[in-house]
Amino acid sequence: MQNFSKTVLDDIESINKIPAVAHILEIVCRTTGMGFSAVARVTSDTWTACAIHDEINFGLAVGGELKLETTICNEIRQHKQAVIIDHVAEDPNFADHHTPLMYGFQSYISVPITLKNGTFFGTLCAIDPKPAKLKNPTVTGMFTMFADLIAFHLDAMEELAKTERELKKEQEIAVLRDQFIAILGHDLRNPLNAISTSAQLLSRLNLDERSGRITKIIKDSSFRMNGLIENMLDFASGRLGEGITLSRTADEDLEKLLLQVVEELQAIWPLRDIKVSFNFDYPVHADGKRLAQLFSNLLANALNYSPSDSTVEIIGLSTEKEFNLCVINEGKQIPAAAMDRLFQPFSRGEVEPNQKGLGLGLYIASEIANAHNGTLKVSSTPKKTCFTLHLPFTNDNNK
To answer: Of 162, 177, 196, which residue constitutes the final position of a domain?
Structure first.
């Protein structure tokens, strides 16, 4: 059994992945009356049959090789022109040529298969021990068209393989990135908890004004860092296949949880006006902690992107059929281009120099809404921007 290199095996496989090749070789023989046709891979070293149609028992199988110097295809590889012989014995250029004498054919046609980048792949060829009428536009045009078609398919498969390789590489990079984010998030939690706890203890001491301000900065920064870590971990969890997990509670005091978020953020922005209007007449069967996380992202976003002298308005309402939570702020209109990617990870739209972050907050908020079978939408005008969480109450919500 012959030992083929990986390159040769790849070439044979590529040709045989083209469904039309078998039909092309059959049509070639039927149209010309010739008994043997093939697609050959021709390099500077080898001639290899990638596909064949044999009605004359020529004796060459797929993968079979001919000594390169004995073939006319070797000459075609060099001058890149088709060679057509109706009757070897009557052809002054080939009557004494060593190839017909060696292989015993009288009619011959071989057309180069040239790839898009100009690379010579091989030939589409046919032979027969009897003469044939080949030098006419119908036959030459057919062979040229079929050779071009094979080249087109080879180019398309190479492009597809290249895209698949790039996609696989991107997927591997994405997995490594997400794993890194998850590990980083977990590793950051312990030192951050230590910093936050220490700041809490310091705030209870009788500190002077300057020390009190520094302690508050540490507390506020710890709060923001904790939010970033939570978003990082949720993002990594979602990308690694676990998704946003929920723990629904039927009697969750959602109003209390949301007001707690308002208090925490009000402490960070003590001079900001936050107007709250809640009307929770009906219980909301949801994961209160997750909704609080969503709300914290929306409210922090509203406070970050609105004028310092403006009011951020919060409206929450539960009815028998649905739950809605709106966070409204004044400020610049969100550009249309940014709106299209607002809920995508690492997308932050137009960001002021002092407003830095990972761009995960709105993505995580949207994922939390989706996990609740709800929606998170945004509308923005030159005067105000409104983010609205909508949770319809269905049988699934109430389980």
So the answer is: 162
